[in-house]
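Sample entry was shown:
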Amino acid sequence: MKQIRIEDSVGCILSHDVTKIVPGEFKGRLFKKGHVIREEDIPKLLDIGKEHIYVWEPKKGQLHENDAAIRVKDLVLGQGCYISEEIKEGKIDFFANTQGIVKINKDLLLKLNLLGEIIVSTIHNNTPVKKGEKIGATRVIPLIIDEKKILEAEKIIKEKIISVEEIKPKKAVLITTGNEVYKGRIKDAFLPVMKEKLEYYGSEIVKQIILPDNKEMITENILKAIEEDKVDMIICTGGMSVDPDDVTPSAIKDCNGEIVTYGAPVLPGAMFLLAYYKNIPILGVPSCAMYSKRTIFDLVLPRILADEKLSFEDIASFGNGGMCLNCEICSFPHCSFGK
């Protein structure tokens, strides 16, 4: 970098953005990289404390921060993402190109950030996002970086670090169980809750079936919904506790599909059941979903809608962060729940 007095800089080309800060009022760009300094710019530069500017004289093996940031972006950004239109001071913002689930390769992200002078920052892995939502950013710390650092990153990072798995509209059958609902003694409260949560992601409940606590009837209707209604998922509500009268878990098991788990390290939602029959997910949702703002259902649903087949390890991993704090103002999914 070559240092030049501001008073002698007329006609010089800025090699980096110049930022102006007015405490409590403004922080932004005063002059853009590539700006040709004019006589009238001199007082403005002096007003922000700039008595010199620095002109970069390119040398082999060196990269400007913006050029380096582009190479980092190409390295880490995968499907379902797009970048900010403007690269500013070596920083590029990342956005979701679709409603989906953010996927972060945490191991590779750590390796990249351990290199130094390059940073990539993201939101949490498995966070559901809307189209256009910011999901991360990269920034090159020095104005000029040794190209060897970028080459080292390109050698280490062989897979994309950030991607967004698209959430696809799906059709579900809701099977509500309980003698008290079946006989009309109380009104079902599950349907409006489940309907709202699915519609948020563009999905729908095409049918609700209300059944008594009869294991054979529940099993029969689950299989019938899968085989005849050709739905994408089954949601069973009610009868999920260990009470002998609650037979929904046994009925799901009798479908002879794959039981992933009965029980989850999540509160609310510990009595959650997940199974698959011919790759169709069957969700046993506990009663807490009727009255709690957020439960295990909110963590699992978007990932299933993104065609992710969840394992027992996926469910077990919810334990760290699996307690909802039931905040007065809910900010889910941008909170600690499920992270």
User: Anything to note?
Assistant: The first helix runs from residue 41 to 47. The chain is about 25% helix and 30% strand.
